[in-house]
Amino acid sequence: MKPENKEKFSRYRYDRNLSYLRKEIFELVLVGDENSYFDMDNFSHRYKLKKGEIDRLCITVTQELEKLGWNVKTSFGGTGLFVYSTDEPPPSCYEDEF
């Protein structure tokens, strides 16, 4: 983290936040309650992320989870991220209407 690498800081921050997001979703999945969701709003506030930043992070993580065989769906106005193994979303996952 040298001053001459300042132009790379935004990438460092993105990678760090992606790592935190992966870890927190991993912890959620380990609990095994697929009716629970990941609160992206809370995560955004804790790490001071802008709307575009959290969207980009979630797209990356969603693609990774889907490649691993998980189903992923957002709910609650796009603020709740469900990760589940069944064909149907969990009962507490409400369809987002846009």
What's the short version?
The protein contains three helices and three strands. The protein has 98 residues and is an alpha+beta fold. The protein starts with 8 loop residues before the first helix and ends in a 14-residue tail after the last strand.
Could you explain how this protein is built, in words?
The protein is of the alpha+beta class. The N and C termini lie far apart (42 Å). The longest helix has 23 residues. Strands 1-3-2 form a 3-stranded antiparallel β-sheet. It is elongated. It has one domain: Orthogonal Bundle (Arc Repressor Mutant, subunit A), CATH 1.10.10. The protein is 48% helix and 12% strand. α1 crosses α3. The protein is built from 3 helices and 3 strands; from the N terminus they run αβααββ.
Main attributes?
Arc Repressor Mutant, subunit A; alpha+beta; 98 residues; 3 strands; 3 helices
Mean pLDDT across all amino acids: 93
Strand order across the largest sheet: 1-3-2
Alpha-beta content class: alpha+beta
CATH architecture: Orthogonal Bundle
